[in-house]
């Protein structure tokens, strides 16, 4: 097997053979992984109805996927440094094929969630390793374009995945998306086995840091559960506060354990570098905003009177298409201009989009307007990647590029599920409270003031069992079903302003941090 000579300072681009044919095949792996991930969004409302679960419970499909991705990204990054990147990518694709097939056969929601966790583990062996190839195939001054092209490929996968996912779900059911993903995984695996050469393994082999990996799993899993507990029991409820405190305790223990580890899964030396941590944290906050806003929008679109999975797919197609083009533009910009200014401009764009999201979206908003706003959100999403990744990886030692790429991926992939969990928790909580308030207001307007009847309206089965309530509503020319139908729309209408308010606060913090990024040093004349 031919090996790629690892010369990070010059890359193989300086030699006779161009690195682009190899890189284009590697991008196919990223394309497949991202397309399969975006199949999931249009499917969530349908899967929720199939298994009869709430919106915030469906967030587990995203959270468990990203939990596997976040925890295993830094592990596979180090394994790839030690044993060869091609081996890890092929292992990831093989596990991906098996887990997608298992999801297609799932007969229960817990089994489907478990399959999604394995899918996340599998993708952890693909995306971070492809990213680390950039540092070895291209010299420092030419990495912006391939990073932009990589974002383009990932966004192309997201674009086609969103559209095809919505169409397939409406035509063939939600299981079809997993069968198609498994088939694409087989194609990607065969091409990488055929065309991509192996990299030279490091002399020092990686030994799995089991205590660190276990503590990272506990930390991420506990922190991701906080929004769900808040949604179910209240913002400052005992379960929510317990989970938050435990998560912070686990994070502290993780830091102390990894400081002593020889080959840590969570490299505190890299994370301790301000010029690495700050861009990574901005990345995380940015993705919290994007994930929360987009997944709330998914349920908002599908919940409207004329909404369906195809509309969700079309909206996401335009969003990811804009992200795809923006990634290419950003890749060129960061090779020519100061990354700090590019990042600040992108965060300001995201803030502007969220203000429109908060104040201008409602049940009567035309679909074309929603698509335009989603495209602008996608533009900000696509532009941020090359700028932040290039800035962060600049401060990682060349012998730890794989570990650094894994950490960037970990922060990136924690931000999305955290945003989804927060967004859907706010969405569910606000929808339920507004629906109940609307039911009570409608009943009071009809002259119904009995406290027992008012509290029963939120439970259709219970309300229908109260014959006196049914008679009182019939006397006013109404029914429980009519009240509930109107109340559900009122509840849905209240969701996006609530989600938007929180996301505006988060992206404002990202803007403050972006303004504090170190300014580039001026070259001496």
Automatic annotation (TrEMBL):
InterPro entries in alphabetical order: MFS, MFS_dom, MFS_trans_sf
Topological type in the membrane: Multi-pass membrane protein
Cell compartment(s), UniProt: Cell membrane
GO CC field: plasma membrane
Segments passing through the bilayer: 20-39, 59-76, 88-111, 117-138, 145-164, 176-196, 208-230, 236-255, 276-301, 313-330, 366-383, 492-517
Keywords: Cell membrane, Membrane, Transmembrane, Transmembrane helix, Transport
GO MF terms held by the record: transmembrane transporter activity
UniProt-recorded name of the protein: MFS transporter
């Amino acid at each position: 097997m031919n090996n790629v000579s690892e010369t990070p300072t010059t890359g193989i681009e300086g030699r006779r053979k161009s690195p682009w044919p190899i890189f284009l095949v590697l991008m196919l792996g990223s394309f497949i992984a991202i397309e399969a991930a975006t199949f999931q969004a249009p499917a969530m409302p349908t899967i929720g109805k199939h298994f009869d679960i709430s919106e915030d419970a469906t967030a587990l499909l995203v959270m468990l996927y990203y939990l596997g991705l976040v925890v295993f990204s830094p592990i596979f990054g180090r394994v790839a440094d030690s044993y060869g990147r091609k081996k890890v990518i092929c292992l990831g694709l093989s596990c991906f094929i098996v887990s997608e097939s298992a999801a297609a056969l799932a007969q229960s929601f817990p089994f489907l969630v478990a399959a999604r966790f394995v899918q996340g583990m599998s993708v952890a062996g693909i995306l971070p390793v492809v990213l680390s190839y950039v540092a070895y195939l291209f010299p420092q001054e030419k990495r912006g374009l391939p990073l932009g092209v990589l974002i383009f490929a990932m966004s192309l996968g997201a674009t086609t995945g969103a559209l095809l996912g919505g169409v397939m779900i409406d035509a063939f059911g939600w299981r079809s998306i997993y069968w198609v993903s498994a088939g694409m995984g087989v194609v990607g695996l065969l091409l990488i086995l055929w065309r991509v050469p192996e990299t030279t393994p490091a002399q020092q082999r990686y030994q799995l840091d089991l205590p660190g990996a276990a503590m990272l799993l506990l930390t991420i899993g506990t922190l991701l559960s906080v929004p769900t507990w808040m949604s179910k029991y209240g913002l400052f409820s005992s379960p929510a506060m317990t989970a938050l405190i435990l998560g912070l305790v686990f994070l502290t223990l993780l830091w102390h354990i990894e400081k002593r580890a020889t080959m840590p899964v969570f490299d505190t030396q890299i994370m301790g570098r301000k010029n690495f941590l700050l861009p990574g944290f901005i990345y995380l906050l940015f993705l919290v905003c994007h994930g929360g806003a987009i997944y709330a929008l998914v349920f908002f679109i599908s919940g409207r009177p004329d909404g369906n999975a195809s509309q969700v797919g079309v909206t996401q197609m335009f969003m990811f298409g804009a992200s795809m083009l923006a990634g290419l533009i950003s890749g060129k910009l960061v090779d020519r201009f100061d990354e700090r200014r590019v990042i600040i401009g992108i965060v300001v764009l995201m803030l502007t989009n969220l203000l429109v999201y908060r104040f201008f979206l409602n049940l009567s908003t035309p679909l074309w307007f929603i698509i335009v706003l989603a495209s602008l959100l996608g533009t900000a999403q696509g532009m941020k990647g090359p700028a932040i990744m290039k800035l962060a990886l600049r401060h990682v030692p060349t012998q730890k590029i794989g570990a650094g790429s894994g950490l960037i991926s970990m922060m990136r992939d924690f931000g999305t599920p955290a945003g989804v969990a927060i967004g859907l928790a706010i969405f569910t909580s606000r929808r339920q409270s507004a629906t109940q308030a609307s039911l009570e207001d409608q009943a009071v307007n009809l002259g119904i003031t009995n406290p027992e009847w008012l509290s029963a309206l939120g439970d259709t089965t219970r309300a229908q069992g109260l014959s006196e309530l049914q008679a009182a509503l019939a006397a006013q020319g109404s029914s429980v079903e009519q009240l509930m139908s109107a109340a559900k729309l009122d509840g849905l209408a209240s969701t996006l302003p609530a989600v938007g308010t929180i996301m505006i606060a988060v992206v404002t913090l990202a803007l403050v941090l972006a303004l504090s990024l170190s300014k580039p040093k001026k070259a001496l004349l």
